[in-house]
Amino acid sequence: MSATLRLALSGLRGRSKVAAGATALVAALAAAAVVAGLSVQSQGGPQVDEIYRDSGRPDLVVYGEPAALAGLRGDAAFAATGPVTPFTTGDVEIGDGSVEARVATLPPASAVGAPQLRTGRWPVAAGEVVFDRATAVEAGVRDGDLVRVDVAGRPSTLTVVGTAVDLTDCFYPDCDPIRLFVSPAGLDALAPSGVERGALLIGRLTDPDAADAAAARLGTLPGVDGVQPWPDTRDDILVRELIFGASLAGFGVFVLLAAAFVVAGAAAARLLARRREIAMLQAVGYTNRQVVGGLLGETLLLGVTGAVLGWVVGTLVAPLLQVGLAAAMGRTGLRVSVVSLLIAVAFVGVILAAATVIPARRAARQPVTDVLRDAPPRSAAPARVARLLERLRLAPAARFGLGTVLARPARSALTAAALAIAVAAVVVAAGFMSTMDRIVSEPARAGDPYDVMVAGDGTGGAGTAAALSAMPEVAGWYTQTDRRATLGEETFLARAIGGDPAQAGFLLREGEPLRAAGEAVAGYGFLRRFGLAVGDTVDIRAGEAALSLRIVGWYSETEDTGEVLMYRAEMLPGATPDAFLVSGRGGSPEALATALRDRLGPAATVRAREADPDELGVFTVALQVMAGLVLVVSLANLAAALLSGARERARVLGVLRTVGFTVRQTLAQSATGGAALGLAAGIVGLPVGLVVLRVLADQVTTGIGAGPGLSQYPSGLLLAATVPAAALAGALAGAAATRRLAGTSAATLVRWE
């Protein structure tokens, strides 16, 4: 063991600092990718669960009449409940638009589901408000700012005295209404006698795992308007973490694969360069096992060093990749995980061990006398390949460059594979960005086929319907009425759709659109959760109504991770629509919202549909950085491989220089070899990237409930340029790699050592 360790330490001392640093760097990149991928997937859940515990475990939120909710406080399902909390709804002006808000009195700090203060203090007087934290960060609202709140056409100006996080629903902009908190006097000022109020009850269950069953039972009781179980809320809160975490984790596979090929190729090249040193060690008495063990120990010491460095980098970077929760809860702190360190070290160790042992065993078994001869290694290119190069009648520089590549087919294959993965990574990154851009530009892909939402005009919907039908700016509209429904003992979101079915422009993926009473269309998440298919019949309860529905199709939906069932509003006679969803004939949603406000007056709540390109930007930047990282590493590996090949044949190159081989031809031969590897990488990487894009994108869109088949390929121009660009990048990397060697004198080149 001591002899093996001495060999490893001696190899490290004599090793080129550049080569040693490169091996450690590649190991660090691979480890950083592993750690960051693991952290992004797991960092949001613990943060949400912590605030859930701090809030007294709000397992169930029940909406309804105050008297009915007061009677539920003694239900056997509850271990504890907060007080029945009154609230009113209105609009809060944010920037150029407004957002729906639920304004409630503040429950006691010890109550189940009490909001968690993030900044400032709680309101004590009328005119003060604690603002929804996620919305405050998004809109730039700070403590001390004035905000305008409109309740039933009665505008009021309130002073923000703090911000808080509330867990009765997910966070803005994914969910609304946002939640604001005022004093009892403040609520009386906003909603005096005659203004409609609602009430809610938050409870902690005796058995938190029975949240769905409790919601299913309580949701059918008289006076209960809706029930929201914590598992559904938690899934909604973490939906962005699911999207981005899954995407980044899947994309991180490219970094790992590229690193694996780079490490393997670098290890093989180093062992070839040290073949004379290995033979000398054997000549003085070292056994093959000691030689292989020393080489392996040397590489693993570098790899472990790099893995630890990568673990540190991945741990530091992971919080910066968080999206979706940062606005409401702040970015997570550093989560130091020994498990992720062990995983990173194990991964890097396995890659390095496999990449080192196989060529080391082969190098150690070569005859010592053959290796010690003062002659360059013979070309490993098959004779038929050499004859083919002769028949192609290529220029000398091109023939020499291809010969250099083919002389080491295994190393060239590893180099081309690493570059092919980089090409695939670029294709996947571009495809993901195209997919996200398409979802933003076509909101029906996310289940939002409208421009503006209108609610609460004070006429029960009749006035709004008449006004919308008469406005030339309106291309179409439909209504929706949401109910928490039950199927068996599980709850889900059921949505009654009214108006003209043809104007509800949902993206139908299979089956027929929703036309008549008794029919239903489902989100993909609903079908997957309950194991159903198009054509099945389901018996549900939506509030107090028992409905039998035949599923005639499924559509793209992301709300509640696609666990939504839509049916015709005629099956809920007398129910007032929650909202009118309006599509315009052109122009922006904001312009249509302005026209609707002018037409409908202050009694109606009008909000333009919003996208969130800022959060999308974080995701796309992360993809671009990772794709660029893979590409840089792969091109650096390509350059190193070509330089190693050229150095191995330096004596041959020196002979060629003496008979007229010019500096330009020297650069051209290396560029030809690089172009050949780049061409092969592009031809392989392009189709691989398209296949992987489809697989990964389907996993992401299925995970968020929208279903498979929504991925978008990159632009045709990018696809057409991929293979030529890979060949050009290879040529440039090859020329850059041998630029210094090309200027070396022929006399120096012909000296083999």
Notes on the protein architecture:
The chain has 753 residues and is α+β, with helices and mostly antiparallel strands. The chain has 4 domains: 1-59 and 231-373, no CATH class; 78-205, no CATH class; 378-441 and 614-753, no CATH class; 449-608, no CATH class. The chain contains 26 helices and 21 strands. Strands 1, 2, 3, 4, 5, 6, 7, 8, 9, 10 and 11 form an 11-stranded mixed β-sheet that branches. Strand 7 (146-151) and strand 8 (154-165) form a beta hairpin. Helix 2 packs across helix 11 (288-317). The longest helix is centred in the C-terminal third of the chain and has 41 residues, at 663-703. The protein is elongated, with a radius of gyration of 33 Å. The model has no long low-confidence stretch (mean pLDDT 78). Residues 412-559 form the MacB-like periplasmic core domain. Its main location: membrane. Residues 251-367, 625-744 form the ABC3 transporter permease C-terminal domain. This is FtsX-like permease family protein.
Summarize the structure.
The protein is built from 26 helices and 21 strands. The protein is of the alpha+beta class and 753 residues long. α9 (239-273) runs parallel beside α13 and α17 runs antiparallel to α21 (613-648).
> Biggest sheet: strands, sense, closure?
11 strands, mixed
Instruction: Give me the Rg, rounded.
Output: 33 Å
Kindly give the count of domains. Answer: 4
Cα shape: elongated
Secondary-structure-based class equals: alpha+beta
Strand content: 15-25%
**If you average the pLDDT, what whole number results?**
78
Low-confidence regions: none
Helix content: 40-55%
The separation of the N and C termini measures 32 Å
Total count of helical runs of at least 4 residues = 26
InterPro entries: ABC3_permease_C (IPR003838), MacB_PCD (IPR025857), Macrolide_Exporter_MacB (IPR050250)
Membrane topology: Multi-pass membrane protein
Transmembrane segments: 242-273, 294-318, 338-358, 413-433, 616-643, 674-697, 717-737
Domain ABC3 transporter permease C-terminal: 251-367, 625-744
